[in-house]
Amino acid sequence: MKLNCDLGESFGAWSMPVESAIMSVIDQANIACGYHAGDPLVMKQAIFLAKTHGVEIGAHPAYPDLQGFGRRSMAIAADELMAMIQYQISALNGMAELFDMKVSYVKPHGALYNDMMKDVMVRRTVMQSIAEINKQSLREPLTLMVQATAKNDVIREEAKEWGLPLYFEAFSDRRYTDEGFLQSRTIEGAVLNEDEALAQAEQLIEAGTVTTASGNTLKVDADSLCVHGDTLGAVSIAKRIREFL
Q1: Count of structural domains within the chain
Q2: What b-and-e string marks burial along 123-132, b requiring 16 or more CB atoms within 10 Å of the CB?
Q3: Is 186 contained in some domain?
Q4: pLDDT of residue 15
Q5: Which residue among 44, 140, 142, 156 sits deepest, i.e. has the most Cβ atoms within 10 Å of its Cβ?
Q6: Does any domain span residue 214?
């Protein structure tokens, strides 16, 4: 199992200073592309750190929501959303080329990620966005990162239509619902504290399961484990998870 983190999420004077400390222990960096966080300088710095530590780069596109950190759902027409996603991926990939690197996967952020997992039409739009980029590229196709749920096989079949490889992801620092989704951040306890996150990570790595908010146990078949860069104690959590792995 790989370890990934949402990074590059500083913006102007707003700083999320975990990149340099956490980059050395992760495998995959999901780098913000300017719509929910990040700016050109922050993107460039995150790419440089990823190259320095041999970390795989993923684009982390979002709804255009700087004020809400991309965590508010938006009703956007499919063609417009597709262009927004492609714009963000292209911006990050263009910056990566300055360092002779390439974006290798895409993980939507926040509300866009949640909407993608729950709404088949949003998911199709995301998949088509990436497939169109892959069609025009001579390099290895971009992989789409999605949440690992009981519907992994359904999403695999959908992705086949677009020729998309997939990464299935689990979360170390977020509470799960009985449906296998992430509990809303508006609910107290939805973001796990350091001890809880470490316990959940260990359970995911060793047993391939997660305990939900109501105490049920769900099977989670994942390729990559996420630590959010804005979670309190993210660096410490990531270092401990690296020890587990």
Answers
A1: 1
A2: bbbbbbbbbe
A3: no
A4: 65
A5: 142
A6: no
Q: In terms of residue numbers, what domain contains 118? A: 2-171+221-229
Query: Residue 225 contacts by C-beta under 8 Å, 6 or more apart in sequence?
Result: 1, 2, 3, 4, 169, 170, 171, 172, 201, 204, 205, 241
Length of the chain: 245
Cα 96 off chain centre by: 18
Q: What is the pLDDT of residue 44?
A: 95
Per-residue pLDDT tens digits for 63-79: 999 999 889 999 999 99
Strands (E) in 48-164, as ranges, are 56-60, 103-106, 143-147
Strands in the chain per DSSP E: 2-7, 28-32, 56-60, 103-106, 143-147, 166-171, 209-211, 217-219, 224-228
Single pTM value for the model: 0.94
Task: Look at residue 227 and give its three-state secondary structure.
Answer: strand
Residue 29 lies in a domain: yes
